[in-house]
Design brief:
The complex is a heterodimer of chains A (about 280) and B (about 180). Chain A is of the alpha/beta class and about 280 residues long. In chain A, about 45% of the residues lie in helices and about 15% in strands. The chains are: A alpha/beta (about 280), B alpha+beta (about 180).
Chain lengths: ~280, ~180
Amino acid sequence: MGPSLRELGLSIVAVANQKGGVGKTVTTLNLAAGLAREGQRVLVIDGDPQGNLTLLLGRRAAAPANPDAPATASRARKPAPHDLSDLLAAIAEKKGVAISGFIEKGVRRGLDLIPSRNRRMRMELGDAEIKSAAPGFAKLLSRLAEHYDWILLDTSPSNGPLERSLIAACEAVIIPLEFQLFSVAGLEAILSEVRECAADHGREIRAHALVFVKAENKVSRIDEYRKVFARFRLPVFEICRSEYVPRSIERRKTLWETAPASYAARDYARIIDKSFLG
Amino acid sequence: MHMARKTTEALEREHIAASIARDLPPLGGGYSLSSATAVPLKRALRGVWGVVSHEVGGEPFIDRIATRSLKGIELQDIEYRAEYDFKESICIKRVDIDGRADLVEGGAAYRFRQRLALSWDLEGPERLRVRPELAYQYTTLDEVPAPVKEMESTGDDLVIVFHLDGDELVLEEGDDFKRLRRLA
């Protein structure tokens, strides 16, 4: 399947596709949690202002203090006071950034999170501010990479300055998609965006693997897709359609917590084994 | 021969894939089926399969053996048996060839045995990626054994195209075409 990211020395990875509904957040969640389960130190960044990854992994704001609550409750971990939106704003304003204020430590064992809680991030920050934050954000991730084995970024289904800034800060991109013509057509767009980001920032960003989600043999023309992509020069992984995926999301859990022996979990484990750890 | 007409969608898909592929760097590819597909397919492959027909370059393999097994000496009365024993991730290939070599001094019994251990995995829906891990073979002529040759893995993978055709397994490797039937 080609060299793994570890063999290539690449550790900052975006999960991206401009098309929505292709499983970016679920893929980011299960890859990040799966890597942490393998004993890796992982930072996951919710780069989608919708904040779905934060909803799945992050801590909720504490309820108003209850004077009758046991003393342990006050020691419960709190959400990070700031999120990605605040981080990009601080970088754009060239304020000194104390990164600890943006990271929720230990949202799972071995897994930290930079959350996203501001759905108005794009409007509040504006394109110019996001663009001006891009180089500083990339530098910050490079520094953070010294403290983590992996940094994974979830992105939103768009190709605006926010997504380009996030991709530009990465060393590699994993592209989830579906067995659909529109999805495959969108692949061309994301690959070209990755190339443009790399050219704009004068660095290599590797399109590392394709991940076809919701694979099942009854999908129309799946064998034809498989034949076409089996000859592709990018590693291709399938994740089977599984009832455990929506079920785990409803419970705000990872597949590793709800169905570690499921086929879908095994499929994510294979990506981790072959494409990340090698 | 009937040729299925490709749908517009199929053409479009292939066009897009080809267009994307042109811009891709020469990375290693590889296709990993979902477990839900791969597990039953691997299960269907597991077991012992015997070769029922074997052609190389359109010519029966047995004819090749007759002329090429011994340098310049033709073999007669050839019996060729080949089996593939697919286990979880290892496949044992056994090849037995018996025949009679026409030597100047008279006919001599010829025997060739090869045992090959291959690691294997699916690579997509119709390709097997195999790696020879260890092999040994020997030839005897007129019951006089020659030393057993042991061959170690070169670390190179081979890709074999396969499909299940009813109760038969078809393996294609370049111009080598085998049809196998389940023995166990």
